[in-house]
């Protein structure tokens, strides 16, 4: 193919010189609101389909409740967070959960090899808390600016209208961070048997903040009391031949007969900070926190005990957002989390409408009734509760209206300082190591299924993609790469002879220092 290709631009016609990274304050710092290129890209992406969801279109849901243990592990939850929902024992917080597939449309089969959405809405006394995650504990990419490209590569070809393996592996082969998630998805873990026997995870890194203003990094997990069960490709094909909605049926019938599914809510904790002693960045959602170093600590349980009365009103119109947090739970500088926080709520306003939070399934509980100065807009059902003076729909006011809530005695104030730029992550060592470790922990049957799935896919790809993928997998684990090469009919030695990807460190190596995506090292801090 010719290197003389047209230049990528924004819709404004501005040439895009960097399509890989958000602008952030330092390598690990927060993204900035003036990321115009990203905002244009992600908000257009949110509006690509009408009216079903662009991703997570096929789904089902159920109502239930959450109960906190009042402890995190063996310690009071208050040591880590002031969130009432995690501290108050004996309180059943109303919950709604929507399970889903990701790539397929609304009527696609639930046997698809695909991550599963696991979105939880807890209607706490301090307002809603949405924990929007997946069944797997990690993701394909670590920077939100790449999300539309990733989904486009995984969705059907715009010309053939088919999911083409070469498109998937073309994207994956240029992004080593995807290798870990690839190893999970192409194994039996890529097809959960149903929604009840499926793990859940928040995927992104958040923070817990206590009443002293002290923060800890945290990962959230849901462990099914029913156990975990997955399907092989053959088992999934057999189910799909008879039923494309088997998981929806399984969940509905279990709840209807009183067999209420239950999950234990667990957290992993890490002190706030950069943790340079680790080979991976704890804010990188393509990596797992090793459970031997950061154990899963039980903090509560969730039970689903009621099916929706109307699927459209309660499931299809349910809307979640990663920015919907309660006091005591906060954002980290995870670049995927920061991008999702804009994207999720934005797509709900487009898909369901600007007043989607007035719908009963999305509205907070009575003790946290919404009181805002927001007015009107498409499909306004009512005027949000005011403070007794209908003339005052603004704040501050000397004659009435709503007022600000009391501030915490000790707030969390993160120190942020750094150059504004687009950065490549410097901690790339685990891009290959964690994928290899996962391969070695699989059972013989899981490895055989993984090899057969990737090998079968690669047989449908051009040689250049085949060779690069075998090269990647061989660097994850030599047996992994060798067996995939054999299954795909690829010359292993020819694959091993490939050089590293341009502009990226060699496998198992890291960049020497913080680096812009241009390849230049970060400048020294200005003198004070």
What does this structure look like?
- By secondary structure, the protein is an alpha+beta fold.
- It is built from 14 helices and 15 strands.
- The model has no long low-confidence stretch (mean pLDDT 92).
CA radius of gyration: 24 Å
Query: What is the tally of beta strands?
Result: 15
Question: SSE order in H/E notation?
Answer: EHEEEHEEEHHHEEEHHEEHEHEHHHHHE
Shape by Cα distribution? globular
Low-confidence stretches: none
* Count of helical stretches: 14
- End-to-end CA span: 50 Å
The biggest sheet amounts to: 10 strands, antiparallel
Q: In percent, how helical is the residue content?
A: 25-40%
β content, as a range?
Answer: 15-25%
Average pLDDT works out at 92
Structural class call reads alpha+beta
Topology:
Elements (H helix, E strand, L loop, with lengths): L22 E3 L10 H10 L13 E10 L2 E2 L2 E2 L7 H4 L5 E9 L14 E9 L2 E8 L12 H8 L10 H9 L5 H7 L14 E2 L4 E4 L5 E10 L8 H8 L5 H11 L5 E10 L25 E10 L4 H6 L12 E3 L3 H17 L68 E5 L5 H12 L2 H15 L4 H14 L1 H11 L3 H5 L18 E2 L12
Helix pairs in contact: 1-9, 3-4, 4-12, 5-10, 10-12, 11-13, 12-13
